[in-house]
Amino acid sequence: MAQRTYRIAIVGTGGIAGAHARAVRDSGRGRLVAAVDVDADRARAFAKEWDVPRVFASLDELLGAEELDLAHICSPPGSHASLAARCLAAGVTALVEKPPVVSLDELDELIEAERGSGAYVTTVFQHRFGPGVARLRRMAAAGELGRPLTATCLTQWYRGDAYYAVPWRGSWETEGGGPTMGHGIHQFDLLLSTLGPWREVTAVAARLARPVKTEDVSMALVTFESGAVATVVNSVLSPRQVTALRFDYEYASVELEHLYSYSDADWRVTPAPGHEAVAARWAADPVPGESGHSGQLAAVYDALDAGEPPPVTLADARPTVEFIAALYASAFTGERVRGGAVPAPFAARMDGTGAPWG
Asked: CA angle, 291 as apex, 288 and 295 as ends, to 5°?
């Protein structure tokens, strides 16, 4: 299949934009033609660093002046849905940083807008494309690991008060939530996309220490359609930082521990007695590299080359966004929340009728 070179713009030139620019540069399959930011000085500095020829103050201005194939949306979360919708209206595919939206209703509106467009919206969930994940899913699907039984998903990070001095952080309107929405989302997206459809969530969320309107810690118990059960912890209060996932199958425990990215060496497989061959099969298939934007971007290019929707589609991302809404609904109402039954206020806003701490 012939590979084409894609004309790319980055919208929002804050911290995460550098990871996107690096992935585009290293791919050899994309060319950065423009950058957009409301802060002109920041945009110019970004353009100089990454050799971007044109700078614009708004996405509308860019879309009126440049022919684009792909727009990387790296702006604050509250703007993601509206910017992605403008891209769709212009026939430009949008690669949107997490979280893709700040409410479940916004995501459903984007799904509807995408149906009338020749373009796509895809969410940055780069951990789905890291070393080891495809092997885990392949072995699980082949029955080599047995039934999934239990799992844990820990995002225990530390963010001090200074981190929240950025105006859009810590607000339901502009960030959509706390560490559930902005930090743990990568890890539990990997959990959910590995274990399949979830059935029910029971959760707690609290604001214990940070000067924010959102939570700074949440915990959830999750039941899956397969019968497997899992715990999910999202925290910005943890001085010893760790990111850890553990999948306990009938025949082996499969564990991943890292911080912000992982390699094949960060996985560990412990076979159940009598199933020692599982570890040997895992070790026989090493994968180079680390998780990061480059892996997902390569998959996006491959899909576009083939004329197919690029991963992760809005439909793919919906179970993760619905899980977040269900977690908050359970935490704030004290009730269990089933998949497909998120209360309307929590579909419209992640804090529903308001967090209990006001």
From this structure: 85
Query: Which of 117, 116, 75 has its CA nearest to residue 99?
Result: 75
* 330: pLDDT strictly greater than 60: yes
DSSP, residue by residue, 282-305:
HHTS---SB-SHHHHHHHHHHHHH
For residue 84, what are its two tokens? 């992605």
How much is the pLDDT for 229?
A: 98
Of the candidates 279, 232, 254, 244, the one whose C-alpha atom is nearest the C-alpha of residue 149 is 254
Q: Does residue 263 carry a pLDDT above 60?
A: yes
Show the beta-strand stretches assigned E in the chain.
Answer: 6-11, 30-36, 54-56, 70-73, 93-96, 121-123, 148-158, 198-206, 217-224, 229-235, 237-249, 252-258, 267-271, 337-338
Domain range annotation of the chain: 6-124+294-313, 128-291+319-348
CATH superfamily of 6-124+294-313: NAD(P)-binding Rossmann-like Domain (3.40.50.720)
Q: Tell the CATH topology of 128-291+319-348.
A: Dihydrodipicolinate Reductase; domain 2 (3.30.360)
For residue 132, give both structure tokens: 């080891």
pLDDT value at residue 1: 56
pTM, whole model, 2 decimals?
A: 0.97
